[in-house]
Amino acid sequence: MTDDILSFEEAMEKYDPVLGFEVHVELNTATKMFDAAPNAFGDEANTNITPVSLGLPGVLPVVNGKAVESAIKLGLALGCDIAPVSHFARKNYFYPDTPKNFQTSQFDEPIAENGSIDIELEDGTVFTIDIERAHMEEDAGKLTHKGGAAGRIQGADFSLVDYNRSGVPLIEIVTRPIVGAGERSPELARAYVAAIREIVKNLGISDARMERGNVRCDANVSLMPKGTTEFGTRSETKNVNSLRSVERAVRYEIQRHAAVLDAGEKVVQETRHWHEDTRSTTSGRPKSDADDYRYFPEPDLVPVVTDAEWIERLRAELPEPPAERRRRLKADWGFSDEEFRDVVNAGAMDVIEETIAAGAPAAVARKWWMGEIARIAKEREVELTDTGATAQTVLELNKLIEAKKINDKIARQVLGFVIDGEGEPAEIVEKRGLAVVSDDGALTTAIDEALAAMPDVADKIRAGKVQAAGAIVGQVMKATRGQADAGRVRELILEKLGVEG
Amino acid sequence: MSAITSEQVAHLAMLAHIEMTEEELASMAAELDVIVDSVKSVSDAVSADIPATSHPIPLQNVFREDVVGETLTAEEALSGAPDAEDGKFKVPAILDED
Amino acid sequence: MNNMLTLTAAEIAEKLTAGELTSVEVTQAFIDRIIATDGEALDADNRAAGKNGVNAYLHLNAEEALAVAKSVDEDRAAGKELPALAGVPIAVKDLIVTKGQPTTAASRMLEGWMSPYDGTVTQKVREARMPMLGKTNLDEFAMGSTTEHSAFGVTRNPWSLDRTPGGSSGGTLAALAAFQAPLALGTDTGGSVRQPAAFTGTVGMKPTYGSISRYGVIAMASSLDQVGPCARTVLDTALLHEVIAGHDPKDSTSLQTPVGSFADAARAGAAEGGLQGLRVGVIKELSGEGFQPGVLARFNESLELLKSAGAEIVEVSLPSVKEAIGAYYLIMSSEVSSNLAKYDGVRFGLRKLPEEGNVTIERVMGASRAAGFGAEAKRRIILGTYALSAGYYDAYYGSAQKVRTLIQRDYAKAFEVADVLVSPTAPTTAYKLGEKTKGDPMAMYMGDIATVPTNLAGVPSISLPGGLADEDGLPVGIQFTAPAHEDERLYRAGAGLEALLTEKWGGPLHQQMPDLETLIRDFNFEGAK
């Protein structure tokens, strides 16, 4: 069954969306949240487990100290208050991927509360998103559904459970309701999740690979008729696991809610599942009183108590926040707003920073990474840094150009050879004999031949039409197969014809 | 007249995932009523200013080093499994569909 | 009865060291005794004869126990250094996981389950080179005060086979009383070693919460559970306590404090003048109304003995204990409802398919849990689910946690004027089989009134035999309680009183015990009628 949807434009004319996000971040600790099993992806099923991660009778949890420090760092990076006393709690519900049939989580005393982050959209508009809390918990195992179509839970005859992921440390970041984003809502959703991903990656606390489920987003959407302030009933779209999907799912849910409200019906409070193939959501489970999680303080764990000394030590370890870093780099490099935004959107900021640090001028680094390298990356459908070009490549190419060993055109060819794995630029120039022809004797012969072939052009130059020299330069470049320094050729032509340049 | 109804117990049994017959629900409701009646005085015995004690001996910040320890083999993990396939625990269908 | 069986663990250890006995001889003697007196489920011939016995054991571990005994004897003969209790056999409550032996928690849910790992106390017992005789019976998942809630048959009280041994560690303490083991491990959540110790004339200790690792002890109520060393004498209990205590990084609630010198404290208490100046607080609320006259008579007799030995008797009050049973049942059942959720037929244990309708995992879980848990387990799971559910949490669980604070304050106040507190362990002597399992569930719960407050407060407490009640000739328990971390005081006071009583009786209490083999013969003859 497909739901009716309204066009996004019409939805925006009639309603104001309210958003909310729960983002789960898997930490990259060596071990799990509550036991010493490895936190590793992709291993043989049911091998990264101890009796604790399998929830065998008699086992007890012990908190991973590094995971707690990661959580505190993330809290600080999100501008949160770190709780002086924080407790773990049990969230009770039955599901076969949850070995104890409760999730060890945090309830009324999370490790971090009351933060906010600024989210910059592509055109530079900034939205401030308030963070309600960030708390520590554990991941569940992985279910594979069998016997149905395409591994879906619907129609499956049975399921298989692998508990390798069970107990992997998670931090759940919960926003306060986000009001006022209007038509920018889908874009903001994407930018928010991208920002969280960037922050946790920058902190080094998560691999932040969305395709592996390291960062997972549950998106809450509700609508208010224009001019009203009371929140509508929300839907919660679960596990939207790519940036593109987040944007699309929020957009879809806005359109779906609008159609429901337009038809005079009520939005059902429920979880929704996002399907990338059909670009739509389907109904999951309605909220019911079965969602009585009976939270209570985890008796097997003791409180986490923080003090200023500990928090300040961790704060001192924090890397520069991504947004601040961007501001600093933009100013340092002297790029225009547009230039810098292009760099960020192309994912070229890190590599350009590295290239500049290696000694290349900012404009040169940008020229190469945003120009020829970006072109090749696009052509080959790979990331910039996966092309095989490095900061060192750019630096060497630039040195060769500055030394007038090669010109720009040849440099682009050399880059191609570097990417094809032929070696370093200088080596390639040498091996392939691509160095600029700087022997004036050889050039003079070529110029003489060109002037003899085009006497009328030579006359024009002599008569003072200096710009006509271009035709002769072109002829000389052709004769030298591009290996001449065009500037030097021009000088020699003018010299020969006795004209001031 | 029992203050706790069979319907209430049915809801609790649903939360606790224990199938119960009508007779079990009824007798459990009656027993629960007696017990709750005897224990409910705890809420009158305390006031808002008394802190709750969740752990009898107060401890704090008990952490583990982030170092991998001994793990179970898949064979050990599955040794008690009622049903297994391909090194994984096998469970019946999750959704109730016709 | 073989003379070896009545030796204390301290005596067995001495004789092993002196070469007067071998561990194989001793271990074999206990195995023979178990087969002769336990009756059910252990020996094929006894079973075939339809013979009923104590039924203290769920699993006999004869082969492994004898192998350990043999290796200890060999090492001793080779002059190797051995731990103090090496070669002294021990029984283990079947709530503690043991690699290589089944662990059932006396539940259908875990019938046939073999743990792939050892609990910390199990490991410590192995390191101490003590042969494990087997796994002892209990109320299912330790929930009950009679051992009648075992899925594998009731345990009978060796003093009187138509009585319960108490519970939940009924099998553990009955095995000691029946001379089927010199030492045993129980667990105590609300009196589960102390009350059966009282009912069987043995010694049960509930240490300070966190002083013995709970890793590998199947959880009933995590904030209340504690492993309890048990024996027939206070000194033996102290010796075993030293073996199993100590910090464990696998248990977040495990204390860092060093292990006390429990055996030294017991020896000091039993020595001349050992009780001199000890301030003993008699708990007003737990020594009068509602207690059986024969229990109070023995209790008052102990007070007189303590006084005569130079102890100072003072009266103390724990006004909040009247709410202790309520708070205990709310907290315990809440934790139970969550701790027992893992038994769902997915990873281990019983799986049962629904008898009709679609086979979904939800329904398989529901059917498995319906079939796997007994009535008392279900009752507590449902009560705990209720106490934690939305709208009731504050009134029930929340209030119970506050009562806990009040009880702790009461104890703190009492310990300002007393070094140890004393009361009878239980209001009555052992219940008749069936007496507490029918009708009002509160009737059984109220029997725990004297023991549950210490679990709520986390403080240590010990029960030792105080003699026999005049009206029924059954054992009465005397309970001492000390402040947290002061377990040594209990060994001092307990061993002191034990020495006075033993002198008064002209020997240990078990000398007044009827001959078990005769009881079993008569009981089976009666039973056949």
Summed up:
The complex is a heterotrimer of chains A (501), B (98) and C (529). With 501 residues, chain A is α+β, with helices and mostly antiparallel strands.
Query: Beta-strand level of the residues of chain A, as a percent range?
Result: 15-25%
> How much strand content do the residues of chain B show?
5-15%
- Overall 3D shape of chain B: flat
Helix share, percent of chain B: 25-40%
Structure summary, number of beta strands of chain A: 18
As a whole number of angstroms, the C-alpha radius of gyration of chain A is: 31 Å
CATH class of the domain at 1-40 in chain B: Mainly Alpha
Provide the gyration radius of chain B in Å. 23 Å
Reported for the largest beta sheet of chain A, the result is: 10 strands, mixed
Question: What does the average pLDDT of chain A come to?
Answer: 91
| Principal-axis shape of chain A | elongated
Secondary-structure-derived class of chain A: alpha+beta
Termini distance of chain A? 76 Å
Tell me which CATH architecture of the domain at 1-40 in chain B applies here. Answer: Orthogonal Bundle
- The count of β-strands of chain B is 3
Describe the structure.
Chain A has 501 residues and is α+β, with helices and mostly antiparallel strands. Chain A is built from 17 helices and 18 strands. Chain A is elongated. The N and C termini of chain A lie far apart (76 Å). The mean pLDDT of chain A is 91. Chain B has 98 residues and is mainly alpha-helical. Chain B has a domain at 1-40: Histone, subunit A (Orthogonal Bundle). Chain B has helices spanning 6-15, 22-39, 42-45, 74-78, and strands at residues 63-64, 84-85, 88-92. The two termini of chain B are 40 Å apart. In chain C, 41% of the residues lie in helices and 11% in strands. In chain C, a hairpin with a 6-residue loop joins strand 10 (461-468) and strand 11 (475-481). The two termini of chain C are 28 Å apart. Chain C is globular, with a radius of gyration of 22 Å. In chain C, helix 9 (262-270) runs parallel beside helix 17 (487-505) and helix 11 packs across helix 13 (375-388). Chain C is of the alpha/beta class. Chain C contains 18 helices and 11 strands. Chains in contact: A-B, A-C, B-C. Strand 10 (158-162) of chain A pairs antiparallel with strand 3 (88-92) of chain B, so a sheet runs across the interface. Chain B: Belongs to the GatC family. Chain B: It catalyses: L-glutamyl-tRNA(Gln) + L-glutamine + ATP + H2O = L-glutaminyl-tRNA(Gln) + L-glutamate + ADP + phosphate + H(+); L-aspartyl-tRNA(Asn) + L-glutamine + ATP + H2O = L-asparaginyl-tRNA(Asn) + L-glutamate + ADP + phosphate + 2 H(+). Chain B: Heterotrimer of A, B and C subunits. Chain B: Keywords: ATP-binding, Ligase, Nucleotide-binding, Protein biosynthesis.
